[in-house]
UniProtKB/TrEMBL annotation:
Protein's recorded name: SUF system NifU family Fe-S cluster assembly protein
NCBIfam families: SUF_scaf_2
InterPro entries, A to Z: NIF_FeS_clus_asmbl_NifU_N
Record-annotated NIF system FeS cluster assembly NifU N-terminal domain positions: 10-128
Highest taxon of source: Bacteria
SUPFAM superfamilies reported for this sequence: SufE/NifU
Length: 160
């Protein structure tokens, strides 16, 4: 009984982030902008970051996607705002490991995003959950080319 109540709480938090996403929209000032899409399902994210001195001061996203994709983007923005680029990269890696079903030490640091660990049971949804995080990684790893860059999300089976 307690487990079903916990599952219901997780679902409610995910639905809330999907219905009322945090940091949804655009920024007046951004240092990196990127568009990434998931060709498997058609989800698209436009991510904007305002970084200064290696710290993510502000972040916003727009686009369209399923409830998991939107909720994950909302949760990601909450988790990384105010973090250094290095801290955000570590969180992104932790999130990727989590949704693949691996145990991680940084569960509390992910905030609400930790609730998406159950996505590991649904392999097709992993790509939805990681889209925003992959866009974040791409923007942080290519700060000089992040503005206006767009691309398709590559998946492990696509990389050769």
């Amino acid at each position: 009984m307690a487990l079903s109540k916990l599952d219901n709480l997780y679902r409610q938090v995910i639905l809330d982030h999907s219905s009322h996403p945090h940091h949804h929209g655009s920024l007046e000032k951004s240092s990196q902008r990127i568009e990434l899409n998931n060709p498997t399902c058609g989800d698209v994210i436009h991510l904007e970051l305002d970084t200064e001195n290696g710290v993510i001061n502000d972040i916003a996203f727009s686009g369209h996607g399923c409830s998991i994709s939107t909720a994950s983007a909302s949760m990601m923005t909450e988790a990384v705002i105010g973090k250094t680029v290095e801290e955000a990269q570590a969180l992104s890696e932790s999130f990727s490991q989590l949704v693949q079903g691996n145990d991680i030490k940084e569960l509390d640091e992910l905030g609400d995003a930790a609730m998406l660990g159950g996505v590991a049971k649904f392999p097709a949804r992993i790509k939805c959950a990681t889209l925003a995080w992959k866009a974040l990684e791409k923007a942080m790893n290519n700060p000089e080319t992040g503005i206006g860059e767009s691309g398709f999300m590559k998946h492990e089976e696509d990389k050769e």
